[in-house]
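Session log. Operator J.P. requested a structure for one protein chain; no other inputs attached. Running the standard single-chain path with token output.
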Amino acid sequence: MSPVIDTEVRESADNVKAGVPYQITNVEDIVTDVQQYSGLRVSLVSAKGEEGGVVLWKRKVTGKGSKLGVFIVALGNNTDRWLRKWVIFKTWENRNRVLEVVSAPVPKAPKVVKTKAA
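Structure written below.
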């Protein structure tokens, strides 16, 4: 009998697109196995159902432009209040991170097909 690997496979670090509205669906504490780094995994979903995620590494002091810093500036430091909020990653590049809290996107009305009168 072959062994079963007891490991959960997830996408690595950040997999979000700039300019796309995402809803925060979950925030979980994580700790790395090897060096015991502590962080937060933020799970997101777009209006089209595309999943994304960001890992924020915890530290006692952080800058306003760090990944953790932009989340705290935009959403506060209570992660329970982050849930169900909609955000857009305006830019998400090293040394240039801008996160904006937005309203939930409104679905577009279906196009009306005109029919000829008989």
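Operator note: The two ends are 72 Å apart (CA to CA).
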